[in-house]
Amino acid sequence: MNIIAQTEFVLASASPRRKELLAQLGIAFEVITSNVEETSVQAQSVEQYVQEVARLKTRDVAAQCGKKTVIGADTIVVFQDRLLHKPKNRAEAIAHLQALSGNAHRVLTAVVIIQPDGEETVFVEETVVKFKQLSFELIEAYVDSGDPFDKAGGYGIQTHGALFVERIEGDYNNVVGFPLASLFEQLIHLRLLTF
After folding, report:
1. Grouped pLDDT means (10 residues each) for the chain, 195 residues
2. Rg (alpha carbons) of the chain, rounded to whole number
3. CB neighbours of residue 116 within 10 Å
4. Residue of 191, 49, 28 whose CA lies nearest to 117
5. CA pair distance 22, 180, nearest whole angstrom
6. Catalytic positions, please?
7. Biggest alpha carbon distance in the chain?
8. What gap in Å lies between CA 192 and CA 53, rounded to an integer?
9. DSSP 3-state of 99
10. Which residues lie closer than 8 Å to 26 by C-beta, 6 or more apart?
11. In this structure, are residues 164 and 135 in contact, taking their beta carbons and an 8 Å threshold?
12. Could you give the C-alpha distances from 125 to 106, 145, 165, in angstroms and in order?
């Protein structure tokens, strides 16, 4: 399929996973990362929180970009209405995985599209992930690999974290960090892409 960009695109994310996913559309884009402090965001719900963080990061990059369309995102893992951020240390990574073991959790990604005229489009995609029961030895071995530390919830579904998953309900790519099908649908709707 030949997808044609009707604008210049900027990805407002340092995530190599988001970069790989966006590249699947076959369009040119540049990467500019935001330096905003995510922990400054206050929100009434996890849905509002993830939207506000994504909006903050995307607006920060859009302010530097002039006549380009900026796409930004934020992904969070929610277990029993509690946010599981990227673990700061080994103990926190182990605690995250012990909580998720044998249970279902929600992965929410908010995507923000800011067009050159300043028009903003925001949407949130949710995927439910159910983990198998994990032994403490398996959790320790995974944490000691170093993989959990740059990932919300303390695991990467596209790496060895895939070995923990019993099932998912929703978009797999959303768990990786970018709901690509929904993003494509929005960009077509906004006439920023054609095919």
Report:
1. 93 93 95 82 89 95 93 96 93 97 98 96 98 97 94 93 97 96 97 95
2. 17
3. 14
4. 191
5. 7
6. 74
7. 53
8. 23
9. helix
10. 2, 3
11. no
12. 10, 29, 19
CA distance 153 to 150: 9
Q: How far apart are CA 191 and CA 195, in angstroms?
A: 10
- Token pair 């951020």 is at which residue? 85
Helices (H) and strands (E) in the chain, counts: 6, 9
How many angstroms separate the CA atoms of 85 and 98, rounded? 14
**CA–CA separation, 136 and 185 (whole Å):** 41
Residue % of the chain over a pLDDT of 90: 89
- Give the torsion through C-alpha atoms of 18, 20, 21, 25, to 10 deg: 130
Q: What pLDDT was estimated at residue 37?
A: 74
Per DSSP, the three-state class of 172 is: helix
Instruction: Output the pLDDT for position 30.
Output: 96
Q: Which residue has the tokens 């900026």?
A: 70
Res 43: pLDDT: 85
Nearest to 7, CA basis, from 65, 81, 91: 65
Per-residue pLDDT reduced to its tens digit, 104-117: 999 999 999 999 99
70 forms beta bridges with 10, 114
Crossing angle between the packed helical segments 136-144 and 90-100, to the nearest 10 degrees:
140
- Name 144's Cβ contacts closer than 8 Å, sequence gap at least 6: 90
β-strands 104-114, 69-79 pairing? antiparallel
